[in-house]
Specification:
Layout: H1 2-14, H2 26-29, H3 32-35, H4 37-56, H5 61-76, H6 79-93, H7 97-105, H8 111-129, H9 135-158, H10 167-174, H11 177-199, H12 201-225, H13 230-257
Helix pairs in contact: 4-5, 4-9, 5-8, 6-7, 6-8, 6-13, 8-13, 9-11, 9-12, 9-13, 11-12, 12-13
Length: about 260
Amino acid sequence: MIVAETIAVAFAMFSAIPVPQPVWNEKNMRHAMCAFPLVGLVCAAAYVFWTVLCGAWPVPGWLQAGGYCLIPVFITGGIHLDGYADTCDALASYAEQAKKQEILKDPHCGSFALIRVCSYFVAYFALCASVQMDRQALICLGLGFVLERTLSGWAVASFPIARNTGLVHTFATAADRVTVRRVLAVLAVCLCAGLMAAGGVAGVCMIGAAMLVLWRYKCVAQKQFGGISGDLAGWFLQKAEIWMLAAFVACRIVEAGV
């Protein structure tokens, strides 16, 4: 029962998938971040379903790419994209740390958020249109969806929290941080091994991209915000997602030109 409730808490918070709504308590939130990567599995499964559907019907290439681009947003409900937009607004302000924190809490969408989100989707669409979604691509990108959430959960249990409010603080406070760190670290190693086995050089490049974004996440969070927050966690996940995709596409292009 606790395992089911823990998974339900993770999906209720980090996805738009309808799940039973248990009352959040110390027991079912203790390891909720360990269940967060399961949302990535759903994204991976949706990619496979869309690929099969596109193979069965004569779906135009641009529509296929649009589907791959929007699937993660539909599954998550845009929660991470919202954090990405808020963080872009705060970073673009070049203000003091306290002012950046205020911008993160502001429910209004600024011009820089709109510019960055539009640019993000143009880039994501172009990348999806540039890759053939064969078996290797589906495995690598599917593992990428899981890896980015694994690293995000690990960061919540490892990095300093910016303020004593918000969902990240709620999850970090309720979590068994030592156990979460260990479980997600082991899972991350397994996922990296899977990426290297399935993707070869492309898999290694995807891992490198994810780790660079994680390092950047920690630097930006500590230097400019005093620690991580829910918005910054969303910013990290969206950045990791697109940069891993870009790394895979770049490797495919290089291989095709050799």
